[in-house]
Specification:
single chain, 384 residues, alpha+beta, Butyryl-Coa Dehydrogenase, subunit A, domain 1, Butyryl-CoA Dehydrogenase, subunit A, domain 2, Butyryl-CoA Dehydrogenase, subunit A, domain 3, 3 domains, four-stranded antiparallel sheet, 13 helices, 10 strands, globular
Length: 384
């Protein structure tokens, strides 16, 4: 199995966490899928091996490096885990880690970040039933009181919500006027927090999803991430990293699948020769390779742009999410078709297709990515 076009340090991280995932995640993946649970033991073991220290400055308890290091480690987990849902839960957590490091205060760094690096589970709660992906329509409200805030509202379809310990909650602070979107860090074990029943999903069943209900949840003044009223600006930076990770994970997850189907195509015969000799088989196989290379390259370009704070970062990250999720679905269909009837029997291949379909929605739909890409193009033209 090849890991193409990576510098030695990144290749080492990828291989390290691919091996760890093969050891700690893959053996229980199907059991967790059948039970529709997140494998918390595997989560804690990856944390103990330093997954979440990648990219975090040494003065905050990390091992330094860049956010590309964290992305590379997560891609390694995707490669070795045999569990796309588990990896998407890692993406949701990674966004919160990066948000706390970049936008947090000393209070966040001392009281929230350490636990999340050691094995606590994070979530980013943006969507609500009436607004969907339109985060500007949030109705969750924070009301200032003498020594902090009281938060009320509900969030729906939140990755990790049934099991998370901390969450980044998008809300409003109406006292601020028209610019009132604010980000709150919430301890989900606090009084007033209720969780909905975990959703029964078609795929991605090892990534628990559900609702979070907030009823007069008290937050200290320091719990706000970034400046009150400037939550959207901070949020767009946070979700851009998540979007780039989707493309990188899609590429990494497909690598071992491609190796398997290549072996199959050399062994399976039809019309007197191995099916690898037939052009229609070659076309489907090369399409998978093209998806891998394209999604990886665009994702890394997006992460580089984020690190450099380049103006095109958001656009590139949305392209990475779109190319990664759409390509993953097409690749999963090709994997099923290449194996014929056997590919349609309930098992690994059908699970891959079910899981892939979920990535079209999780992390922002294809339609939302296209909207963001266009908005970024128009903004660049206006600023030219």
């Amino acid at each position: 199995m090849s890991v193409a076009f990576m510098p030695p340090q990144e290749t080492a991280l990828d291989e390290q966490f691919a091996q760890l995932a093969a050891q700690h995640v893959a053996p229980r993946s199907q059991q967790a899928y059948d039970a529709e649970i997140l494998d918390r033991l595997a989560w804690r073991r990856l944390a103990a091996h330093g997954l979440w220290r990648n990219g975090v400055p040494t003065q905050l308890g990390g091992n330094g490096g860049t956010w590309k290091d964290l992305a590379t480690a997560i891609a390694g987990v995707a490669r070795g885990s045999d569990d796309l849902g588990f990896t998407l839960s890692l993406i949701a957590h990674a966004g919160l880690i990066r948000a706390l490091v970049i936008h947090g205060t000393d209070w966040h760094h001392q009281h929230i970040l350490p636990a999340l690096m050691k094995g606590a589970i994070g979530a980013t709660a943006l969507t609500e039933t009436h607004g969907g992906s339109d985060v500007a329509r949030t109705r969750t409200t924070g009301r200032r009181i003498e020594d902090g805030w009281l938060l009320n509202g509900s969030k729906d379809h939140i990755t990790n919500a049934p099991v998370a310990d901390r969450a980044l909650i998008l809300g409003r602070a109406p006292e601020l006027g028209r610019r009132d979107i604010t980000l709150f860090i919430v301890n989900l074990h606090s009084p007033g927090v209720r969780r909905g029943t975990p959703e029964e999903l078609l795929g991605l069943r090892t990534s628990p999803t559900g609702a979070i209900h907030l009823d007069d949840v008290f937050l200290p003044e320091q719990a706000i991430l970034g400046k009150p009223g400037e939550g959207l600006t901070t949020l767009y930076d946070i979700i851009s990293f998540d979007r780039a990770l989707y493309g990188l994970v899609a590429a990494a997850y497909l690598e071992p699948r491609l190796d398997d189907v290549l072996n199959f195509a050399h062994q399976r015969e039809a019309f007197g020769s191995p099916i690898i000799d037939h052009q229609y088989v070659q076309g489907r196989i090369t399409d998978i390779r093209i998806t891998i290379e394209t999604a990886r390259a665009i994702s890394l370009a997006g992460i580089d742009a984020l690190i450099a704070r380049a103006p095109e970062a958001s656009l590139r990250c949305s392209i990475a999410k779109l190319v990664g999720s759409e390509g993953l679905v097409e690749a999963a269909q090709n994997l099923m078709r290449l194996q014929g009837h056997v590919g349609y029997i309930r098992g690994t291949i059908t699970r891959d297709l079910q899981d892939a379909l979920g990535t079209l929605i999780a992390g922002g739909t294809t339609e939302m990515q296209r909207k963001n890409i266009l908005n970024q193009m128009l903004a660049a033209r206006d600023n030219a």
